[in-house]
Amino acid sequence: xxxxxxxxxxxxxxxxxxxxxxxxxxxxxxxxxxxxxxxxxxxxxxxxxxxxxxxxxxxxxxxxxxxxxxxxxxxxxxxxxxxxxxxxxxxxxxxxxxxxxxxxxxxxxxxxxxxxxxxxxxxxxxxxxxxxxxxxxxxxxxxxxxxxxxxxxxxxxxxxxxxxxxxxxxxxxxxxxxxxxxxxxxxxxxxxxxxxxxxxxxxxxxxxxxxxxxxxxxxxxxxxxxxxxxxxxxxxxxxxxxxxxxxxxxxxxxxxxxxxxxxxxxxxxxxxxxxxxxxxxxxxxxxxxxxxxxxxxxxxxxxxxxxxxxxxxxxxxxxxxxxxxxxxxxxxxxxxxxxxxxxxxxxxxxxxxxxxxxxxxxxxxxxxxxxxxxxxxxxxxxxxxxxxxxxxxxxxxxxxxxxxxxxxxxxxxxxxxxxxxxxxxxxxxxxxxxxxxxxxxxxxxxxxxxxxxxxxxx
Length: 458
Prior knowledge:
Blueprint: H1 2-12, H2 14-17, H3 36-55, H4 58-61, E1 62-65, H5 97-100, H6 108-111, H7 132-142, E2 163-166, H8 180-192, H9 217-220, H10 228-250, E3 252-256, E4 261-264, H11 267-274, H12 283-303, H13 305-309, H14 320-338, H15 354-374, H16 381-401, H17 404-408, H18 424-457
Antiparallel strand pairs: 1-2, 3-4
């Protein structure tokens, strides 16, 4: 009944609401030196096409994940039974051989530690004839041993329950997963993991008016009193939420019959989630937070360039020509990210008193790790897949931003162990998560066009 009322309300003043989704999504962004228009032009014209090409390659399309982890916070009421919630894992024959070896090293540096490694046949593959000492040393390179630097929980890739998923065959889109169980996920994130005072109430359903003055200021006013770090944390979570909602609106099930299933842009759904009046002032703020998230992840890509630029690093799948091309494309994207003129300045975070800053940074990590664990409570497997990937990608971006010294001190020779490492799982999630944000920014241009055309035809 509530939804029907909102739909009737929407259509009653639709011509007046066309600008309201974007009426305040212009100009400079809070806590940043950048503006929305610069991001739109840079992403949509330059970065987006190249990134989509990279993400369609074998190295980045296959993601290893455990989707059957139990929810650590509350008792599951059962998984989603909708057919669009299902995830189709890969068979062994569908995964490139170069990705399946658990002992594979993602850089030549580890392999060069021994001449017994059969580099001619498989880059970084561990020969079974190696001594126990050498084998353990090499495996240690592959083991992601910088747990203290992580901002999110990682699945055990060696678990028999971990499976490869082809992301291109399991796209993020509207699945029909909604209602109290879905809202419980976001409510837990916002209410318990965003440094929000318990005295400030956020409605379980974002379509319900916030407490306060009826224009969204009642809920958002508490942010003004937070330190920049906690404010940034909330904006990252809100931006991620907004990005997911953009994807669901852009790939909505428009028609389902015996002959075909048609997916496409649902402008009404987009307005229900982002129109200023329908969301009581919250919608445009969500979109601005999406741009903020874009800047954070873009800055991480620029900062991590030295790690990938090393001649010893390879995007190995076992297909040499494709692997070489993909690394060239990857470096082109990273150099493009570095060229962005108005990057977010992460040096403004965790400054001041060293002891207090260290505690705040640790709280930041623990809270984000908690959010990554909540993803195992999502009942829809496809939603869980993309939720885990995107939170891990954002966590990897945060790890990069606060590992500047370690990245700068990366050894150029193979005689030293790198001071900074990324597992393949982190690499795949980092670029796919940014790919989702980049796609969201591109889709906003599509929705602006649809809304403009609708207004002109009215």
